[in-house]
Design goal:
globular, mainly alpha, two-stranded parallel ribbon
C-alpha cells in the first residue's frame, strides 16, 4: 500500500502542473499590449495541421485599436478594431473552412 506522503506528493505535482499549464494558456492572450498575439508582425505561427485543428482562443478585454487595420471594413472609413488578436498558420491546402 503506498504511503500517504507519496500520494500527497503525486497530488501536489499534478496540482502544480495544472497550474503551470493554466497560466500558460492565460498568458497567451493580448492582455496588456506586450504579448506576441497583440500585433500581426509578432503573431505566433501554427506550423502544423495538428496545431491548427481545434485551435481555440478567447478575446481579452484589452483595447488596442492601433494594432488592427483601419478601416477594418471596406467602404466604412470610420470602422476599426478594438481588441485585435492575431495568429498565423501555414497553409497546407488550397481550400480551408474555418468555423467559430
Amino acid at each position: 500500500m503506498p504511503s500517504s506522503i507519496v500520494i500527497l506528493s503525486k497530488q501536489t505535482l499534478l496540482f502544480v502542473l495544472l497550474g503551470v499549464i493554466s497560466s500558460l494558456s492565460l498568458n497567451a492572450q493580448c492582455t496588456n499590449g506586450t504579448q506576441p498575439e497583440c500585433a500581426c508582425e509578432t503573431a505566433p505561427v501554427l506550423c502544423t495541421v495538428d496545431e491548427l485543428d481545434g485551435y481555440m482562443f478567447s478575446m481579452a478585454a484589452f483595447i488596442h485599436p492601433e494594432d488592427g487595420p483601419s478601416p477594418i471594413c471596406p467602404g466604412a472609413p470610420s470602422s476599426q478594431t478594438n481588441n485585435p488578436t492575431w495568429f498565423a498558420f501555414t497553409a497546407w491546402c488550397s481550400d480551408l473552412t474555418l468555423s467559430g
